[in-house]
């Protein structure tokens, strides 16, 4: 792998982690400390941004059906995540989120009968 490609990948992963942490902490702050009561509105803001970026991907990559399915799953995930932040601590929310790779591997095995390396 070229070093410029490796740096680009590291940059993308770092940006993804940073944005996820930032959004999570901002949502928790708004919902708990600030007293914001409209978790569905936050979800709408997430979905608007996600839709705009998805539109770019659809127009550029011509992957409409795959992205539409991803949008639906992501929307449900964000709704439940934002609602849960009203009742759970950020640390517990993150602890539950760390189980995602395990369940992803389990469901991938169930669906494809292939083991992860």
Automatic annotation (TrEMBL):
Record domain Sugar phosphate transporter: where: 12-111
Membrane topology of this protein: Multi-pass membrane protein
Sequence intervals crossing the membrane: 7-26, 38-61, 68-88, 94-113
Keywords assigned: Membrane, Transmembrane, Transmembrane helix
Protein's cellular compartments: Membrane
GO terms for cellular component: membrane
Protein's UniProt keywords contain Zinc: no
Entries under PANTHER family matching the protein: SOLUTE CARRIER FAMILY 35
Record protein name field: Sugar phosphate transporter domain-containing protein
Source species taxonomy: Eukaryota, Viridiplantae, Streptophyta, Embryophyta, Tracheophyta
């Amino acid at each position: 792998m070229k070093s410029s490609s490796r740096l680009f990948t590291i940059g993308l992963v770092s940006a993804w982690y940073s944005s996820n942490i930032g959004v999570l902490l901002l949502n928790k702050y708004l919902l708990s400390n600030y007293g914001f009561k409209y978790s569905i509105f936050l979800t709408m803001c997430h979905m608007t941004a996600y839709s705009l970026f998805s539109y770019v991907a659809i127009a550029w990559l011509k992957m409409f059906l795959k992205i539409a399915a991803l949008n639906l799953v992501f929307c449900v995930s964000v709704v439940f995540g934002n609602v849960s932040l009203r009742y759970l601590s950020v640390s517990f929310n993150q602890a539950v989120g760390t189980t995602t790779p395990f369940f992803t591997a389990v469901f991938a095995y169930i669906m494809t009968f292939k083991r992860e390396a």
